[in-house]
């Protein structure tokens, strides 16, 4: 009888041990299989590569977001006149500007990011700004791009989709730059007309065809328009919005952006003699 009781007791203990093992095992499986984004545990164990949320501040009135504009990063041709020379910034000066911006805690972002922040009327605490290049000149690829890559700087380029030739970026270069994740493309129309001087039908074609061409080439939405010669009026702004642009760029020399007027964002044309930091400081205090 004692032996039989002892035997039953042993079985009972064995069943209990197995039950405990199964329970503990299940608990571990549950712990391990919790999805990473489930906030059940503690945010302090979030993986390092997950971007922490940026604290945003509401915008009241205009926002100081400098948008610099360049055309050529190169030495101007020897016979170039004064106006043409103003479009050329030599690579060393360009690199110095990038260094100065970084030293002064500016963080270059894409124009689409600027448009998003302004659209939501919220800004990160950092000094965001944008670096833009008009026309899609080939010297972007040969001279500006190595510098931008060196400092991992984002830039936004505006392409005339009808223009081809050896002075301009090729579709292959555009694709390569797009893939880098550091360059964003937008429309600079098809043929670079003075939009204020052509019919509404032609305006529509320039805005829509360039948007579709780039959209198809890059397989993404093209959301930013850059007005050729910086020329625009109220009806062109309305048309740009109607055909799907989120924001448009002018040459109105300022760094203050009106979140209620995304179709006329201001830009600063950088010419060889401009002291960019001094000019930004001046604009900042002028509001
Ligand atoms: Zn242009």
Please count the helical segments.
9
Largest sheet: 8 strands, parallel
Shape: elongated
CATH-assigned homologous superfamily of the largest domain: Glycoside hydrolase/deacetylase
Query: C-alpha Rg, in Å?
Result: 28 Å
Short structural description:
This protein has helices spanning 2-33, 82-85, 91-103, 111-120, 138-150, 171-179, 200-218, 234-242, 276-286; strands spanning 56-58, 63-64, 67-70, 72-73, 88-89, 106-108, 122-124, 127-135, 155-159, 183-187, 224-226, 247-253, 256-257, 265-269. Helix content is 42%, strand content 19%.
Give a written overview of the molecule.
By secondary structure, the protein is of the alpha/beta class. The chain has 2 domains: 2-41; 65-286, Glycoside hydrolase/deacetylase (TIM Barrel, Alpha-Beta Barrel). It is 42% helix and 19% strand. The chain contains 9 helices and 14 strands. It has helices spanning 2-33, 82-85, 91-103, 111-120, 138-150, 171-179, 200-218, 234-242, 276-286; strands at residues 56-58, 63-64, 67-70, 72-73, 88-89, 106-108, 122-124, 127-135, 155-159, 183-187, 224-226, 247-253, 256-257, 265-269. Strands 3, 6, 8, 9, 10, 11, 12 and 14 form an 8-stranded parallel β-sheet that branches. A two-stranded antiparallel ribbon has the order 1-7. Strands 2-13 form a two-stranded antiparallel ribbon. The model is unreliable at 24-50 (pLDDT under 50). It binds zinc ion. Zinc ion (ZN) is lined by residues 134-135, 188, 192, 228.
């Amino acid at each position: 009888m004692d032996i039989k009781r002892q035997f039953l007791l042993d079985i009972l203990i064995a069943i209990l041990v197995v039950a405990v093992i199964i329970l503990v095992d299940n608990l571990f499986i549950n712990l391990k299989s919790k999805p990473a984004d489930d906030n059940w545990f503690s945010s302090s164990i979030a993986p390092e590569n997950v971007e922490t949320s940026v604290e945003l501040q509401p915008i009241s009135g205009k926002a100081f977001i400098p948008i610099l504009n360049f055309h050529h990063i190169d030495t101007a041709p020897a016979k170039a006149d004064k106006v043409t020379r103003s479009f050329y910034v030599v690579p060393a000066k360009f690199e110095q500007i990038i260094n100065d911006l970084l030293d002064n805690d500016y963080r270059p972002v894409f124009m689409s990011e600027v448009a998003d922040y302004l659209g939501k009327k919220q800004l990160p605490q950092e000094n965001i700004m944008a670096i833009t290049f008009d026309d899609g000149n080939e010297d972007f690829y040969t001279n500006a791009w190595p510098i931008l890559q060196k400092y991992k700087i984002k830039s936004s380029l505006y392409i005339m989709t009808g223009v081809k030739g050896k002075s301009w970026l090729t579709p292959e270069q555009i694709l390569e730059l797009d893939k880098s994740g550091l360059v964003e493309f937008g429309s600079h129309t098809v043929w670079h007309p003075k939009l204020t001087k052509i019919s509404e039908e032609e305006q529509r074609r320039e805005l829509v065809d360039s948007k579709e061409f780039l959209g198809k080439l890059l397989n993404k939405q093209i959301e930013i328009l850059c007005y050729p010669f910086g020329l625009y009026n109220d009806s062109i702004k309305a048309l740009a919005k109607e055909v799907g642009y989120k924001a448009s760029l002018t040459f109105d020399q300022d760094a203050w952006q009106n979140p209620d007027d995304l179709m006329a964002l201001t830009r600063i044309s950088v010419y060889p003699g401009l002291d960019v930091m001094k000019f930004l400081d001046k604009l900042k205090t002028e509001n």
